[in-house]
Task: structure prediction
Amino acid sequence: MENSVQIGNPQEMTVPPVEGVAGGGTAYGWSDGVMLSSKRIKGSIDPTEVPSADLLHVWCMPSTANIGSQEMPRPLEHTRNMKTSCQDKQIICLAQDTRVLMAFMMMCIRAVTLLAARNERESVQIAMRPKVSWGGSGGAVKVQCSDLCSPSGDRLVIGESMKLRRLVSILGVPDALVPLDLPVSQISLLPGETTAIWVSIDVPSTQPPGQYEGELIITATKADAESRAKCLGKAERRQLYSELSNFLEIVDPIDGKPLDEVVERVKSATTNLRSIVQSPSFCELFSDGDPVDMMDEDAISNLSVRVKLSLTVWDFVLPLTPSLPAVFGISDTVIEDRFGVEHGTDEWYEALDHHFKWLLQYRISPYFCRWGDSMRVLTYTCPWPAHHPKSDEYFSDPRLAAYAVPYRQVVPGGAEKDYLQREIETLKTKTHWKKAYFYLWDEPLNLEQYDNIRNMACEIQAYARDARILTTYYCGPSDAPLASNNFEAFVKVPKFLRPHTQIYCTSEWVFGNREDLVKDVIAELQPENGERSENLEFEGPLLDVL
Result:
């Protein structure tokens, strides 16, 4: 989008909008203050001589947005959040060359503002779309990111607290986040398609509060030279390997050698190494001893698109344990198929352990599941039995808000008799027992299935009266109507299942856009008896979100 601004009194500058104060994609303000009119570029394009903003669109989006390949550039709030100093004004007044003025103003193009507490993660997406093609199909950009620094010198370090990932579509849906090399990475852009970078910032619980600032620098670059340097042919790699091996043979055996012989070996090794550096494999990198493919500081400043990152860290710490549990279910059979591991093997335990730890870092309480007949489901958070040290390690982690206990053995074998009783008696002596729940059936449909839930719940609560049973549902029993219409029957399910269920997990699609209907469901619950309601969303074939 083309527009312009006048740089005047700093007091007239507009503060970036803040759309909320919570996480989950609301704590953002953007500015897109300067987008100068660019002439239509014709002929061959050298990205080292053209401002990157003339070659590609760059804009910011919240983490909650789905950015697909056909996402079009967004017209954002046209404000600035940079102050103009007297020296800056002098630069503008003295700028007789339009390109010099453009270079200065390009430094202020875009900004994103984030708000976060300590021990919180905030994310934002940076989208890019080529305006023209350069260097072959689409073009290539170099992405650099600085640390976020506060005026007092505190830092959020790139690669530690800050991570960049490329958003990749899976079956046409933006899903996978592929890590980028830090602090500099190169990305290929396709013509007519939008590419997004996911920027995430993890604020440590010990991070001093304050205002932190940094920037993301996006520079259009030549792809051919760098791609060739990274993708040498087999013959070139063999030649390079041979020459480096010869170099090592010359240098390695010098211990105990006379000084004259060492000098000769060093001279020979230097000649050998020089021939490698001057080989065709590196000719694009150096010309007459001067680098030609790496942009200097001035070139980056003049030509790059700079996205200013501003983070306000508040002076309070989020607790490790989420106040609202987010429980994700993952099919263990999918893990077995995708990773080629056999149920119950060491590799299988390792794969599940990897998934558990990966999700837990995002304060997600995972459980694994396996479906049986008629939607009977075996759910468990820890694949090891309750007496195993791993069990206590899993369940005692303060980031884990809730865990599923299996109704029967996860890995068949051993002493199966009285398994459920032993598990419950072991777990209920632990302080983390209050996190436990049993998820026995996925969305029962008829009276037989509802009766099965009752029977299993009775067995469990015979060993622990305070055991919590979770049931997901979207209707009452079809062969024993609880009311005159389907929705009324749905509302009456808690009364029908009481006292054999404590957590009623309703399918959100049943309500449609009628948020007022939720009150009818909540009114049926008895919170004084420990009953509560949760929402269930189905995320594709692999994942349940409770």
Observations:
- The mean pLDDT is 77.
- Residues 148 and 279 are 40 Å apart (CA to CA).
- The first helix runs from residue 86 to 94.
